[in-house]
Design a protein that fits this description.
Strand order of the largest sheet: 4-1-5-6-13-12-11-8-9
Structural class: alpha/beta
Helix content: 25-40%
Length: 616
Amino acid sequence: MKKFLFSTILCSLFASGSINAQESNDALSLKKIFHVTDSAATNHRTYHAPYIGVSASYSNNNASRIATAYTESIVKAGGIPIIIPVTTDAATLLDIVKRIDGLVLSGGGDVNPAYYNEEPNTETLDTDTLRDEYELMLLKFATDRNVPVLGICRGEQLINVAFGGTLIQDIPSQYENKSIKHSQTEAREIGTHYVSVAPGSQLATIVDDRTELFVNSFHHQAVKDVAPGFKAVATATDGVIEGIEAYPNRPILAIQWHPEAHVMGGDKTMLEIFKFMVKEANIYRQAKEIHQRILSVDTHTDTPLEFKKTGFNIANRDTNQVNLPKMEEGKLDGVYMAAYIRQGERDKASSQKAVDYITGLIEGVHKQVGMNKDKCDIAYTKDDLIRLKGEGKKAVFIGVENGYGIGKDISNLARYKKMGVGYMTLCHNKDNDICDTSNAASTQEWKGLSPFGEDVIREMNSLGMIIDLSHSGESTFWDVIKLSSQPVVATHSSARALCNKDRNLTDDQLRAIAKNGGVVQVAIVDMFVNKDPKKASLTDVIDHIDHIAKVAGIDHVGIGSDFDGGGGVIGCSGANDLINITVKLIEKGYSEDDIAKIWGGNYLRVLDKVQSSATK
């Protein structure tokens, strides 16, 4: 039996793993259900309680239905329930997911064992291929967009399987401990056994740090191996896992019992689970709405390195971290694609090869954009970004990473500027003809800027090209701060006070960039945000943003992911996850004005200033 994991589980449904279908009539009609048009959603701030989608079951008479307890529990918690009909029409489900703020996967029959690489080994299985495909689509579309998800009973099992876990197919026949009857005959609102709640878990916080809950039980299957990225947070006294979660890195909670039945019986503790879901959905809704109103820019990705892949197209939601579908999912308006070259030999011939290579990468960006003019365009200025957002398109800016790419001819700066290059990173991990690097391997050849490097700084100022100090050594940094007549940036650096890596900036450097009027764009790179890269998470990224905002000021911090070039941490591993940063900033109390500055306002201020001061 072929193994199905969540990353590939829908390959049989979608050949490329991406959805390109046009909205169907059914999907378009949903706009009437949600009482909002696309333009209204974009142009007006109108509060509504969050929409919570609820997956339906599929009855023998071909009807989509859901128990009233689910919808009533959501209403009692302050949300607006939307019953999602059972269908495998991708356009319809995608349209629904784009409009909901949270998703509840309801209880029901068994998940097909083929999805966790097992043959059916019991006659008790009650599977439904249609429902499996329908809910797997819903879950993929929702989690691609980081919609908060609550799984209940079957919903817990489906989530665990979708993310790579396994199930006990039949507790009575496969589980040795028979002390609990997990398919009770008592009424649904009555608890029949206890589950212990893991201290410090999100579930524990929701239930006011209670260590035990008295719950009902209507299942014969259960989680066996917990999926990667999740942890068990509730366990029955017989050892059966009854709760899993991905918090704090992903907004997913799943439980085995039926809290909606307890809520209908008057259980206020169980109502807190739905209140939490509604609260999470409300924050997610706020994040989506903020992104409609602000300009968001990721100032550093190495996506051009992906262009060499056969058939690569930024319109495809492929295995790379930055592409147009993922930008849409993460609500990102613009992205800098850096033409990067590693440091090579510095003789004349090698330097010219470097120039030719960088030129080819820049042309590659133009080619990719040209293939998708209906979805994106090259952006040179802030006004271009504003215009493109208004047209419903993504903005692609261009940068050059490593001044080695101009060779020994300073006139290449002007040539690159005409090709759309907005900034240049002076060096990478080795010293070059311009300056010394921050890397420990540096020989400190120039003790900062070289004479040629000083000319480069003046020329970049004259051309209106932003100077990027990421990767620059401290002596280079201070030379540039002293020499540059314009604000400078660090397009993908973090705070050394939190993670002592040479590429990160000291607090003195942060204050100096603030005084210069520049910006530090926090890198989403594991080794630069946590001393233990394996533990690096979204929480660490937020800590770096918070630290820089406090030291340099809110006007001098931004985001430069370094995706497709080493970027990615737990909870933020691609452009589609960038909305999670906004969610976390809202949770920490940052205002919309602050978030607008972090997501692009600060960098765009520098871009305006540098470009408007150009003398060439």
